[in-house]
Design goal:
alpha/beta
């Protein structure tokens, strides 16, 4: 009698009730083993490095480091890692940025359990998988104007990974000293990155940066409570 090897999964999701529900769903399926849970993008990077799961399920809006930047850093460190984005945020820019970064799949959080389990199995077998609605949007986007790098033309200036990290931490209320400690850089370097992202976005106050981070899905809407 042969035993089929279970697919190991790392889940990165900051909402406990969602995390618990997904773990229960996948454990009950019988084809998967949950090897780790991350509540922040930073935790996801560390667990991906140590656990080497077959598939990583990644939310986008997470504290400290969002899923977009965490995914980019995971795939830079290990191009063979298999990441599926599972998020309520499915703007064309998110999809474009994540497919360009090398993710293996992208699902909306309202996807059914059947689609989720199929996606994990397909990706674990070396294929890509997008929910039907997102696959349709990718096809539609193929005819849209692109820049010289092959990316969809965006209406704003693209931030570097470090600028995006600083933006998130600023929007979450961290002072420059705290950001420097979190990112292991000097306060002067934080100030430099902060000025660069303000210049790029043409936003020159913390409240404006926070609103931008919320509107772009980098942080959750609840942060609005801190800027009223």
């Amino acid at each position: 009698m042969t035993t089929t090897k279970k697919i190991t999964v790392l889940l990165a999701e900051d909402h406990a009730i969602v995390r618990q529900g997904l773990c229960a769903l996948l454990n009950a399926d019988g084809h998967f083993t949950m090897v780790g849970e991350a509540k922040t993008g930073r935790e996801a990077i560390e667990l991906a490095k140590t656990l080497k799961p077959d598939v990583i399920l990644m939310d986008i809006a997470m504290p400290v480091l969002n899923g977009l930047e965490a995914t980019k850093q995971i795939l830079t460190a290990d191009p063979s890692a298999k990441v599926i984005i599972l998020s309520a945020h499915s703007d064309d820019e998110y999809i474009e940025r994540m497919t360009a970064a090398g993710v293996a799949g992208f699902l909306e959080k309202q996807s059914s359990a059947e689609i989720l389990t199929k996606a994990i199995q397909e990706v674990a077998n070396g294929k890509t998988f997008y929910s039907p609605a997102i696959a349709k949007r990718i096809r539609n986007n193929q005819s849209k104007p692109r820049n010289r790098d092959g990316m969809l033309k965006a209406d704003g200036n693209r931030l570097t990974s470090r600028e995006a990290e600083v933006l998130q931490l600023v929007a979450e209320g961290s002072a420059n000293k705290q950001i420097a400690a979190e990112l292991n850089i000097s306060i002067k370097t934080v100030e430099k990155h902060r000025q660069h992202l303000m210049d790029k976005l043409n936003i020159h106050d913390t409240a404006g940066l926070t609103r931008y981070a919320i509107s772009s899905g980098v942080i959750e809407n609840s942060v609005q409570l801190t800027i009223v």
